[in-house]
Write a structure and sequence with these properties.
38% of the residues lie in helices and 16% in strands. With 295 residues, it is of the alpha/beta class. The chain has two domains: 183 residues, 3-Layer(aba) Sandwich (Rossmann fold), CATH 3.40.50; 86 residues, Glutamyl-tRNA Synthetase, domain 3 (Alpha-Beta Complex). The protein has a three-stranded parallel β-sheet. Helix 1 crosses helix 10 and helix 3 packs across helix 6. The chain is globular. The chain binds glutamic acid. Glutamic acid binds next to loops.
Length: 295
Amino acid sequence: MSIIGRFAPSPTGPLHRGSLVAAVGSWLFARAAGGLWLVRMEDLDTPRLVPGADREILAALRLYGLEWDGEVVYQSQRIALYEDALRRLRERGAVFDCGCSRAELQRAASAPAASDPQERIYPGTCRDGLAPGRPPRAIRFRAPAEVIAFDDLVVGHVEENVANETGDFVVKRADGVFAYQLAVVVDDAAQGVTQIVRGADLLSSTARQIALQRALGVPTPVYGHVPLVVDELGNKIGKRDGALPLPLLDESRVRSTLADALKTLGFEVAPAKPEKMLADAISLLKARENERPPA
Ligand code: GLU
């Protein structure tokens, strides 16, 4: 089977240290296997978009020697695909209209004390239909009450019961925006992606995405979740402190930043032209794979 990998940044700012690790990791795993590497702009969350960030991310990828295959895909131009997937889910009874407001969800007794409403377990209020007179707001996917298991290329065996961890989750938001979880599954399937390498912050989204793949009858890719970049205190480096605006990227900075990203991925590579550093990392990755005992 030929490998198709991808990098799917949200153009909400320039490439930062964390997203560079995801870009390099997905590129390495795809290229080491002789596969394709696609780039997709996840630009659905309009309130968070930064104009020009897409071009800045692409220019940075080129500077780091990360060449992609084919045209860059923009999710904002693919709404019909998400509408179609949602229609199929509805026909199968896999989604339902939810009339709950944020405040109601926050008050719901069964919710744990998480500050982010996205992290609370949905209490199931509208699962069996909206109360009379209630307008629909978001659309939710019925979380299957089963353990979803997968073998991650980096972190190993993972199991999650979506019903217990998140409950019925949003696939179309109250503001009409298709949720990341649905769009990512639809696009990875439509683009024939077979290998998803991305940051470990998305590990907890994977079981939800596999549940959606099963409901839509599309294949599940192989997943690999690479380490997050953390500061000295172990906190995740965010967009603000890890941002790498292009004007700052002179040649020596590109080399040292790429060396850091490769180190986070477990590859010690001497600073050189980015293409050479990436080729060295591919050799190291291949050597590592050959050392692994056969499954
Ligand atoms: N767009 C997502 C992000 O930038 C990543 C999506 C993915 O790799 O699945 O966090």
